[in-house]
Amino acid sequence: MLNWSSNAKQCLANSGFRLLMNEGTSIKRGQDLIYLSGIDDLLSGTPDPAKVFKNPRLDPDVFHILLVHEPDYTKETEKRPVDLQLSGHSHGGQIRLPGTGPLITPALARKYPSGLYRISERLTLYTNRGLGTTILPFPLYCRPEVTMIELI
């Protein structure tokens, strides 16, 4: 059986990408600093959020972007010094009926299936529908999406 996840991770690593699995990094541009971190897949990985948030480089006054595959993790994220959580997982529900929203959403993607959400005074969540599918090989009334977020 092909392990797509392991193959994808290896391909990304071989291409020079740094996978942020239970770790983070500081990014500095001029005088501006942001902290970017990622938590491994909650359902099929080995997530260790404590490792991310115990990092001594994590300054609560620095803008923090957290990558978490499952959007409904915001219950935990809003307790932490995080400004923006970027997620996916839901495929926007993949099957939608006009006026009703998603018919089927996976675990940990039911509350925030797609779009921009203000979770708390500090935390904003963006759930991307992505390009892929799950279960069915096509979406229905759920447009695929690639999003570009510009930090200014």
TrEMBL record:
Record SUPFAM superfamilies: Metallo-dependent phosphatases
GO process annotations (BP): lipid A biosynthetic process
InterPro entries per the UniProt record, alphabetical: Metallo-depent_PP-like, Metallophosphoesterase_sf
Any one GO molecular function term: UDP-2,3-diacylglucosamine hydrolase activity
A cellular component term, taken from the record's GO annotations: membrane
Stated name of the protein: Metallophosphoesterase
